[in-house]
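From the shared-data thread, chain only:
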Amino acid sequence: MSVPPIQAPPQPSSGKPVVLFVIVGLVALVLLLGGVMMIRAESKTNKVALSSSAKPVTVVEAQRTMYRPSRTYIGTLEPWVQADIGPQFVAAYVDTVLVRPGATVKHGEVLATLDCRNASAATQAIASQARAIDARQKAVADEAARKKGLLDGGFIAENDVIQALAQSEAELAQLASARAKLASSALEVNDCVLRSPFDGEISRRTIDPGAFVRPGTSIVTAVDRSTIRMTADAPEIDFAVVAPGTKVSIHVLATGRDFPATITRRAPAADASTRTVHFEVDLIDEKREIPVGTTGEVHIDVGEPVAATEVPLYVATLRGDKASMYVIEGDVARSKTFPVKGEAQGRLYVDTKLAPGTHVVAEGRALLEDGDKVTVKVGDDAPPPPPKASP
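Structure, as tokens:
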């Protein structure tokens, strides 16, 4: 009997080739994706240098105009006269205050009263003393006259006559002293009734009834606005500019109105601390429309008008009397410098070497260098119309 050969059991197939294929596939996919991303990034990279590309700028057009140098000074509009009204001799309680700010008052009108019963009583006492001294002096004078007549007849000694005359002189001196005290006391009594020193208006009320006031305390303030004094100070180098008789224009900030005027007076010397010269301009304001204590501007034209080219002030860099700016020549920005004639209200006036109609870079100039290519966009920056004077 034959025995069949013994066969080994089947071995399971190994998974290593499958894992290897998967890893190789993933690596290939990653490399493929990386290559695609690199190609895409390279396609979006700018190969042209930024310095050689045109830079976008906004330009404005230079304008032809006439420029006249001017000076502007800031000053204060003050009343012709102003008075702080209050007691000057007496201390007392305020009895009444009859006016408030805005009231119109006449010269001599009662504005306030004080409770001066003590001063009134003292005045009456001094008046009584003065009358008593006056009566006594008259009696002594009559007695001295009678004794002098007796001396002529030899009925009385000369010494008695001299003493009578001396006593009469002493009584007369006491009478004069009493009358002086009475006048001083009368001033105190009169000080209890406060009157307006001029025709004007009440600008301030600082004390109400019941308050105690002392000499020098202001109860109300009166102003006269029939004439306004525009006061200002100019640098000492402008001494000749603010000469009396110079034509000026006054701009009142509170009302926005302009008034033509003439410099009325000028100080003969400069202030020692500020080195400025004080000058004043009188404005007649019969309708009393200008508020006092407010700010005003004095504009003075100096010299003759000259031709100039006007651009906005912000398009240039100023160094002394030179202005640097970028002008457009074709499609290139050129840095140029021009002499400055002046500036006013945000506008710059330069020499006519800057031709009218030239495009000047307004926005984007900070990134420019001389000779850069540019793409131009014209901005809207027309010069403002000149201000019109109010009638």
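Residues 117-190 form one domain.
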